[in-house]
From TrEMBL:
GO terms for cellular component: cytoplasm. It comes from Salmo salar (Atlantic salmon). InterPro entries: 6-PGluconate_DH-like_C_sf (IPR008927), NAD(P)-bd_dom_sf (IPR036291), P5C_Rdtase_cat_N (IPR028939), P5CR-like_CS (IPR053790), P5CR_dimer (IPR029036), Pyrroline-COOH_reductase (IPR000304). GO terms for molecular function: pyrroline-5-carboxylate reductase activity. Belongs to the pyrroline-5-carboxylate reductase family. This is Pyrroline-5-carboxylate reductase. Its EC number is 1.5.1.2. Residues 6-100 form the Pyrroline-5-carboxylate reductase catalytic N-terminal domain. The keyword Membrane does not apply. Homodecamer; composed of 5 homodimers. NADPH binds at N58. Residues 163-267 form the Pyrroline-5-carboxylate reductase dimerisation domain. Pathway: Amino-acid biosynthesis; L-proline biosynthesis; L-proline from L-glutamate 5-semialdehyde: step 1/1. GO terms for biological process: L-proline biosynthetic process.
Length: 280
């Protein structure tokens, strides 16, 4: 990786911060080569603690960087890209983190030959345990994808796939994090109902989710196999699982992923008509 690579983040939210932490953790990119822009200074402090420069000017950031993460809410993408388009050159790589905003929309809002990639991370990037999926635009080469993968390797699991998978990944992992939190909350509240102190119940629930997830990832076993290994005939677990199946947990979870995916697709359809070709 080029040690002179300059990286910018438009947006100073959690996703930008988590990715920035991961990028800097490798040591390949010095903090002096990273810059963040946002209209408010509210979140600048934690970036400055990393040694990262900050600015309120998106145009200034793009002009001084080679690879730019656009880490803003989907409804702001059109405004942001219109603002920076005159600063984008052939040397730039633009990586969008905006849910639902398609590569076609992004490419339509930027100069014709701009290298664009679409990335969907999730909140555990904050602790370098994220699940990230990216897709390349029509003018992004394999080496552009390799560069992005290398930059993100310390953020967690990084995979490349077709763009059609990005919205599914949003439902599975982007939104899925909240689904897991809801389950952990319910798990702890069940223990509280049975008489355990709340703080202890939530601590044990968090460790249970963490341990189960790590075992699932590292063992390579199918979830159903691990689940069956916990169950004994007539034991506590099979009785609890029966109650969960009666409550429709499996169907509700599948529907939640489906609904979140469809919402991501809807956001993409809403953003598409706003794109106007801007060819240089």
């Amino acid at each position: 990786m080029d040690s002179n690579l300059r990286i910018g983040f438009i947006g100073a939210g959690n996703m930008a911060y988590g990715i920035a932490k991961g990028v800097l953790q490798s040591g390949d990119v010095p903090p002096t080569n990273v810059k963040v822009s946002a209209p408010s200074a509210r979140n600048f402090g934690r970036f400055q603690e990393l040694g990262v420069a900050v600015t309120h000017s998106n145009a200034e950031l793009v002009s001084s960087c080679d690879l730019v993460f656009v880490a803003v809410k989907p409804h702001l993408v059109t405004t942001i890209l219109s603002e920076i388009t005159d600063c984008v050159t052939r040397k730039h790589i633009i990586v969008s983190v905006a849910a639902g905003v398609t590569l076609a929309t992004l490419q339509g809002l930027l100069p014709f030959d701009t290298v664009v990639l679409r990335l969907m991370p999730n909140l555990p990037c904050l602790v370098q345990q994220g699940a990230l999926l990216f897709s390349r635009g029509t003018r992004a080469r394999q080496e552009d994808g390799d560069l992005l993968r290398s930059l993100l390797q310390h953020c967690g699991l990084v995979e490349e796939g077709p763009e059609a998978w990005i919205d599914i990944h949003t439902g599975l992992s982007g939104s899925g994090v909240a689904f897991v939190y809801l389950f952990a909350e319910a798990l702890a509240e069940g223990a509280v109902k049975m008489g355990m102190p709340s703080a202890l119940a939530h601590s044990i629930a968090a460790q249970t989710v963490l341990g189960a997830g790590q075992l699932l990832r590292d063992s390579g076993k199918h979830p159903a196999q691990l689940r069956s290994e916990v169950c004994t005939p007539g034991g506590t677990t099979i009785f609890g699982l029966h109650a969960m199946e009666q409550g429709g947990v499996r169907a509700a979870t599948m529907t939640a992923v489906e609904t979140a995916t469809e919402r991501a697709r809807e956001l993409g359809r809403k953003s598409a008509p706003t794109a106007t070709e801007n060819r240089k």
